[in-house]
């Protein structure tokens, strides 16, 4: 997990500053003095949000936060900010999360005290686990009532301590502008994450002489994220890359957060290194590229998992050696040396001790590494990795991802492929389960166009996250891939889609089960399907959509698939498509719990191999496979 101290820099969890009115203010370096103006604490909050570039707030009002909403009413009239009224606070947090993932900006959500604040908790934890920058503003009972068990009082500061990067309880409205500026700085720098601002009702009401604090003007002496990599360590990494014969790039969400996809591609092409990504790293590398291996881990591609098992150098970029990636940890890349690049020092060495640790911003580190390589006279032979690439290409041919075709039902994989074919450049959000893994396997996403709850695995994430993405990019296609069980977790947000005409398309892969739960019960629990069937009580999705004033559709056979997906995409407004798919389809490949990545189940059956004659190099007489284009030893063209 993230470091719990300020000294670690990159991810301060609960920095012990700014928790009361007695806190010594951080230095502020305004270039000009703005004369104070009499305003309320609520106005100061909203004006500060506007100054930090906030265009949209996702939220739900309530008693303790009403003073802020009253000021919001006035600010909205000026057109400087727009509030999106969700139907449940969890939807607000997921929408702010989706907005942040798609834009790279800080998402903002509001909730009132007590149950309003606790309804935000799942979304806060989702953002924290995936390192998403977010500002969460909660109303609180008046200062004098705090600690008295007042109506709708909850210690949201204490409840969220483990799942935020930092928290504030605003005790004096004079601190509001500084706190907002600090919160944005903390949320968006170093390893990003959510920051909570808890505002007592009387603080929001109280008027004071308001002086704005501009973005970037605060200084936090105890918070200094390391952004530049150590030159000695970068040189050591370059040396390992040059010596490697079977290197592999293992790319995580840190590359997305750092906007480092161009640098990842340059590094891969410079040294001819194959690339695999985590669930969070999808989009950091073009999956149409010949060096791409897709996703690795529990439901990753077979060739990615074989590659990580056999590589001699693993270059980890912005990833954290998560258990869903590594499988049995002591057998994960067990023959490889490791280079680990990450902005959070707490992650480096946490699960796997690297030979070369590099703490710093991924983009900065890769830029420096590439510059040093280009300036060096010591060049890596262009075909040094050719034998490794040939082996990986053979794995790709032998163990492809399989798309089943059943005579009497539609496979879920067919649906994903058809949607991806018709909307190749869309933003995709997902819920969590089998449909999420199929989408990860078969969609080919660009940077920031894959929006999925990875670390926490939050069912119900998909639709509200898609709302946030569509609000940010109204002219882009936004599609949510969901399952029948996940969809019902936050279906009330259909009301938000209807109210604002948010043109999100939702494709439900409906098999009547909690699909991933059913698959595990089949594989590991003796086919005892305890509480995983969802058929009884399943709503008629088409009628449900109609009740909200949204277009609903049903696809029940393969002949309808292409035309109805096209109809969905052509419709000017939100659409819910209920696709009735094969009931008992499982998601493969799969690494069983406690097994190594190479021990996958569900791999395609191999056809008998035909004996082939080797090809001998005319220059050095090395034996090569006939599929080789260049000699694996000397690089001579065969």
TrEMBL record:
<keyword id="KW-0808">Transferase</keyword>
<dbReference type="InterPro" id="IPR039368">
    <property type="entry name" value="AHAS_TPP"/>
</dbReference>
<dbReference type="Pfam" id="PF00205">
    <property type="entry name" value="TPP_enzyme_M"/>
</dbReference>
<dbReference type="InterPro" id="IPR026870">
    <property type="entry name" value="Zinc_ribbon_dom"/>
</dbReference>
<feature type="compositionally biased region" description="Polar residues">
    <location>
        <begin position="1"/>
        <end position="33"/>
    </location>
</feature>
<keyword id="KW-0100">Branched-chain amino acid biosynthesis</keyword>
<dbReference type="InterPro" id="IPR029035">
    <property type="entry name" value="DHS-like_NAD/FAD-binding_dom"/>
</dbReference>
<protein>
    <recommendedName>
        <fullName>Acetolactate synthase</fullName>
        <ecNumber>2.2.1.6</ecNumber>
    </recommendedName>
</protein>
<dbReference type="InterPro" id="IPR012001">
    <property type="entry name" value="Thiamin_PyroP_enz_TPP-bd_dom"/>
</dbReference>
<comment type="pathway">
    <text>Amino-acid biosynthesis; L-isoleucine biosynthesis; L-isoleucine from 2-oxobutanoate: step 1/4.</text>
</comment>
<dbReference type="InterPro" id="IPR000399">
    <property type="entry name" value="TPP-bd_CS"/>
</dbReference>
<dbReference type="InterPro" id="IPR011766">
    <property type="entry name" value="TPP_enzyme_TPP-bd"/>
</dbReference>
<keyword id="KW-0460">Magnesium</keyword>
<keyword id="KW-0786">Thiamine pyrophosphate</keyword>
<dbReference type="Pfam" id="PF02775">
    <property type="entry name" value="TPP_enzyme_C"/>
</dbReference>
<feature type="domain" description="Thiamine pyrophosphate enzyme central">
    <location>
        <begin position="234"/>
        <end position="369"/>
    </location>
</feature>
<feature type="domain" description="Thiamine pyrophosphate enzyme TPP-binding">
    <location>
        <begin position="431"/>
        <end position="579"/>
    </location>
</feature>
<dbReference type="Pfam" id="PF13240">
    <property type="entry name" value="Zn_Ribbon_1"/>
</dbReference>
<keyword id="KW-0028">Amino-acid biosynthesis</keyword>
<dbReference type="InterPro" id="IPR045229">
    <property type="entry name" value="TPP_enz"/>
</dbReference>
<dbReference type="InterPro" id="IPR012846">
    <property type="entry name" value="Acetolactate_synth_lsu"/>
</dbReference>
<dbReference type="Pfam" id="PF02776">
    <property type="entry name" value="TPP_enzyme_N"/>
</dbReference>
<dbReference type="InterPro" id="IPR029061">
    <property type="entry name" value="THDP-binding"/>
</dbReference>
<feature type="domain" description="Zinc-ribbon">
    <location>
        <begin position="616"/>
        <end position="638"/>
    </location>
</feature>
<feature type="region of interest" description="Disordered">
    <location>
        <begin position="1"/>
        <end position="36"/>
    </location>
</feature>
<keyword id="KW-0479">Metal-binding</keyword>
<dbReference type="InterPro" id="IPR012000">
    <property type="entry name" value="Thiamin_PyroP_enz_cen_dom"/>
</dbReference>
<comment type="pathway">
    <text>Amino-acid biosynthesis; L-valine biosynthesis; L-valine from pyruvate: step 1/4.</text>
</comment>
<comment type="similarity">
    <text>Belongs to the TPP enzyme family.</text>
</comment>
<feature type="domain" description="Thiamine pyrophosphate enzyme N-terminal TPP-binding">
    <location>
        <begin position="41"/>
        <end position="157"/>
    </location>
</feature>
<dbReference type="GO" id="GO:0003984">
    <property type="term" value="F:acetolactate synthase activity"/>
</dbReference>
């Amino acid at each position: 997990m993230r470091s719990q101290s300020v000294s670690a820099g990159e991810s301060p969890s609960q920095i012990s500053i700014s928790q009361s009115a007695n806190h010594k203010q951080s230095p502020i370096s305004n270039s000009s003095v703005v004369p104070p103006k009499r305003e309320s604490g609520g106005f100061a909050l909203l004006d500060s949000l506007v100054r930090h570039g906030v265009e949209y707030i996702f939220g739900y009002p309530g008693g303790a936060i009403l003073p802020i909403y009253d000021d919001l009413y006035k600010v909205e009239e000026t057109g400087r900010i727009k509030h999106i009224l969700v139907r449940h606070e969890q939807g607000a947090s997921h929408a702010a999360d989706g907005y942040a993932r798609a834009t790279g900006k800080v998402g903002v959500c509001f909730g009132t005290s007590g149950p309003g604040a606790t309804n935000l908790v799942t979304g806060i934890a989702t953002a924290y686990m995936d390192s998403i920058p977010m500002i969460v503003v909660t109303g609180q009972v008046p200062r004098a009532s705090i600690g008295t068990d007042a109506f709708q009082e909850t210690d949201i500061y204490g409840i969220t301590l483990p799942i935020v990067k930092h928290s504030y309880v605003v005790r004096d409205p004079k601190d509001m502008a500084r706190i907002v500026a600090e919160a944005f700085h903390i949320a968006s720098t170093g390893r990003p994450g959510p920051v909570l601002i808890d505002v007592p009702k009387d603080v929001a009401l109280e008027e004071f002489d308001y002086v704005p604090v501009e973005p970037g003007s605060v200084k936090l002496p105890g918070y200094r994220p390391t952004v530049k990599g150590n030159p000695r360590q970068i040189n050591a990494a370059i040396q390992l890359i040059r010596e490697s014969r079977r290197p592999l790039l293992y790319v995580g969400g840190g590359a997305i957060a750092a906007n480092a996809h161009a640098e990842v591609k340059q590094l891969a092409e410079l040294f001819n290194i194959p690339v695999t990504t985590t669930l969070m790293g999808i989009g950091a590398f073009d999956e149409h590229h010949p060096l791409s291996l897709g996703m690795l881990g529990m439901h990753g591609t077979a060739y990615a998992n074989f590659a990580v098992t056999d590589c001699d150098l693993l270059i980890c970029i912005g990833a954290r050696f998560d258990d869903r990636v590594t499988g049995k940890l002591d057998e994960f890349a067990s023959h490889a040396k490791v280079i680990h690049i990450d902005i959070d020092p707490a992650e480096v060495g946490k699960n796997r001790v690297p030979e070369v640790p590099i703490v710093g911003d991924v983009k900065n580190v890769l830029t420096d590494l590439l510059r040093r390589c280009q300036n060096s006279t010591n060049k890596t032979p262009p075909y040094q990795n050719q034998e490794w690439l040939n082996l990986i290409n053979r794995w790709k041919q032998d163990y492809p991802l399989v798309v089943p075709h059943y005579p009497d039902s539609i496979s879920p994989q067919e649906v994903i492929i058809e949607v991806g074919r018709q909307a190749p450049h869309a933003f995709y959000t997902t819920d969590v389960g089998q449909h999420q893994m199929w989408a990860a396997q078969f969609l080919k996403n660009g940077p920031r166009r894959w929006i999925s709850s990875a670390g926490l695995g939050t069912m119900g994430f998909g639709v509200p996250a898609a709302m946030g993405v569509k609000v940010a990019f109204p002219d882009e296609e936004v599609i949510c891939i969901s399952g029948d069980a996940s969809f019902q977790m936050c279906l009330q947000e259909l009301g938000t889609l209807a109210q604002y005409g948010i043109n999100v398309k939702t494709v439900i892969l409906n098999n009547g089960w909690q699909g991933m739960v059913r698959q595990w019960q089949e594989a590991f629990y003796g086919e005892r399907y305890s509480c995983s069937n969802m058929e009884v009580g399943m709503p008629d999705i088409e009628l449900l959509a109609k009740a909200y004033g949204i277009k609903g559709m049903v696809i029940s056979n393969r002949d309808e698939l292409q035309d109805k997906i096209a109809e969905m995409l052509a419709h000017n407004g939100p659409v819910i498509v209920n696709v009735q798919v094969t009931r008992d389809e499982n998601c493969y490949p799969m690494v069983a719990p406690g097994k190594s990545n190479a021990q996958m189940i569900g791999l395609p059956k191999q056809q008998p191999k035909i004996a082939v004659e080797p090809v001998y190099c005319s220059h050095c007489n090395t034996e090569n496979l006939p599929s080789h284009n260049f000699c694996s030893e000397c690089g001579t063209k065969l």
